Amino acid sequence: MDAVIEYWPFWLIYLASAVIGLWCWGQCFFWLRNTEVRRFVYALGAVLLFTPAPAGEGLNHLAPALVVVPFAWLDGSLQQAMPAINWWLSALAMAVVLLALRALMNYFTRSEQSDQAQ
Questions:
Q1: Distance CA 69, CA 62 (A)
Q2: Which of 52, 82, 83, 103 sits CB 3.0–4.6 Å from 62 for a disulfide?
Q3: 25 within 8 A of 49, measured Cβ to Cβ
Q4: What is the pLDDT of residues 52-65, one digit of tens each?
């Protein structure tokens, strides 16, 4: 019976709800100005919501890491959650690198604009 199940509709439902959740996450931080801190918090939410992870040891199926980690913790084997945590940390590192590159680009474009204004 497992071979009959198609997983793409479930992933489609999850992605739609994660997009709505990410929008809500962004609205929670309306009080932060549009700075790098707000972008980092937004990226943190995106990483938490959209990072897939192996559903278990030795399984080829992916599941949202936000689901895998708590259930592995409740199961009592935090060791099974380590691949999901590694995926989270990898995605967060990529987000930090992208945010740093964006901050550098903003810094250099602002300095060029201020040089042209003088």
A1: 13
A2: 52
A3: yes
A4: 887 777 777 778 88
Host domain of residue 40: 2-117
With beta carbons less than 8 A apart as the criterion, state whether 32 and 38 touch: yes
Tell me the C-alpha to C-alpha distance, in Å, between residue 49 and each of 18, 34, 36. 6, 21, 20
Gap between the Cα atoms of 38 and 26, Å rounded: 9
Q: How far apart are the first and last CA of the chain?
A: 71
Domain count for the chain = 1
Listed residue (46, 57, 48, 64) closest to 10, CA to CA: 64
Q: Mind listing the pLDDT tens digit for each residue in 1-36? A: 456 677 788 888 888 988 898 888 888 888 878 777
Backbone angles phi, psi at 63, to 5 degrees: -140, 160
